[in-house]
Write a structure and sequence with these properties.
Helix content of chain B: under 10%
Number of strands of chain A: 11
Order of helices and strands of chain A: EEEEEEEEEEE
Radius of gyration of chain B: 13 Å
Largest sheet of chain B: 7 strands, mixed
Radius of gyration of chain A: 13 Å
Order of helices and strands of chain B: EEEEEEEEEEE
Structural class of chain B: mainly beta
Strand content of chain B: over 45%
Distance between the termini of chain B: 37 Å
Helix content of chain A: under 10%
Oligomer: heterodimer
Shape of chain A: globular
Number of helices of chain A: 0
Number of strands of chain B: 11
Structural class of chain A: mainly beta
Largest interface: A-B, 29 and 30 residues
Strand content of chain A: over 45%
């Protein structure tokens, strides 16, 4: 069961522009959300997180937005850089020590 | 601080065999969780161990099992391998568990079943 969905397998943006990666979830019990970035031949690395008591969390060029009513999560990268090219996974947890991941979105930032 | 170490990096097995993968967490981390990554499926949760006890298990058949030792190192075993088990297996460690704290991933073990 795909409780966390990333419907766009890939996204291409120009360097300096905004990248918006989207994630939808179905389980209303999820209350902690994270984004991970993965380069080829490496494990995912933690990027940014948000708990359900917030609707926005910012860390430098990365901002995560949470819309609980729509069960939607998005990651904004501004400005995008070629080094941001990677696969991005969103993840959600319902406080039962069970992390669910989306299938990932491959971001390509063109110079 | 050393990161999460997974061994081996690559493994080729034939159907019906069994395999054991190893994971050494970051020092001080008591939680180790395992994930299977396949194209189009993303990362799927296998199970989590905390202080040598399995705390949660994903929706995988009983052929997939694991354990954790007193030094927090963990092993994952897959018996009676099937072609569909070919995947990247990732382990991750965290201080207190997968909930409410970021995971630190290893680079994974690429398993190919022929």
């Amino acid at each position: 069961d795909q409780q966390v969905k990333q419907n766009s397998p890939s996204l291409s943006v120009q360097e300096g522009r905004i990248s918006i990666l989207n994630c939808d979830y179905t389980n209303s019990m999820f209350d902690y959300f994270l984004w991970y970035k993965k380069y080829p031949a490496e494990g995912p690395t933690f990027l940014i997180s948000i708990s359900s008591i917030k609707d926005k969390n910012e860390d430098g060029r990365f901002t995560v937005f949470l819309n609980k009513s729509a069960k939607h999560l998005s990651l904004h990268i501004v400005p995008s850089q070629p080094g941001d090219s990677a696969v991005y996974f969103c993840a959600a947890s319902a406080g039962i020590d069970d992390m669910r991941f989306g299938a990932g979105t491959r971001l390509t930032v063109k110079p | 601080k050393a990161g999460v170490t997974q061994t081996p990096r690559y493994l080729i097995k034939t159907r019906g065999q069994q395999v054991t993968l190893s994971c050494s967490p970051i020092s001080g981390h008591r939680s180790v969780s395992w994930y299977q990554q396949t194209p189009g499926q993303g990362l799927q949760f296998l199970f989590e161990y905390f202080s040598e006890t399995q705390r949660n298990k994903g929706n995988f058949p009983g052929r997939f099992s694991g354990r954790q030792f007193s030094n927090s190192r963990s092993e994952m075993n897959v018996s009676t391998l099937e072609l569909g088990d070919s995947a990247l297996y990732l382990c991750a460690s965290s201080l207190n568990g997968v909930y409410n704290s970021p995971l630190h991933f290893g680079n994974g073990t690429r398993l190919t079943v022929t």
